[in-house]
Predict the structure.
Amino acid sequence: MNAHDEDRMKKLLQQALPPVDSDAGPSRDLWPAVQRKMKSEPIAPPLFSCVWFDWALLAALVAFVAFLPQSIPVFLYYL
Amino acid sequence: MRNDTSNVLNAFRQGSPEASEAACETLFRLHQRAVYGWILRIVRNPATAEELTVETFWRIYQARARFEPSRGFEGWARRVATHAALDWLRSMRREIELPEDCSAELAAPPIVDAAVSAEIRRKTALAFSRLAPKLRIAATLVVVEEQPHKEVAEALGISVAAVKLRVFRALRLLRKDLQQQGITP
């Protein structure tokens, strides 16, 4: 896609999606809803706060050690 | 004035639960309009934008201990709002299609080119709604809303170059989708 195509796509997208009114505000006072949510949903314990990659890495490590138990001293050495 | 703001931010971050809540209300009153407007630009639906504004300030309150006053509240709030909107777009991805009356709900009228038919505009909007949310957010904010790259990059927590790349990828995939439908943009 060259620069000309890119400009055409931008114009088409601008026509398909009209810009919103930047001065728009909410139709009602939202603070009571925020307060209700603050009271009804306390802080969740970060049990699963690790990203999926951390879990995948841990699983791979466990699998590796299970299949090659002789590698355990090597891991312990580098810990 | 600066001291007042600083006091509010400190109370928000480190105060007692009551002081934090009071400071949160002050910050909410100061920034709710900007946060709502930013979310509306992304989700393009007033009711959803209201819902996500509530979610954003709840997340802000929950994460107040991690807030760094030196980096400013507005940018942080915008970043939390962007992530709340992104989560919503991801959760709605299979269900959402841009409503046909989308333009009716929004105050600003579309800039209509007579050469582009309503059918093509509708198909473009639908094809756009099928893009990955992270590409859609970048393209909506940069191309449609004409927000500065730097601001969008800060809100998404990525570099300016990454924003440009996402916009380019969004436009390229959109073009490909339209071409598959027999539309040559």
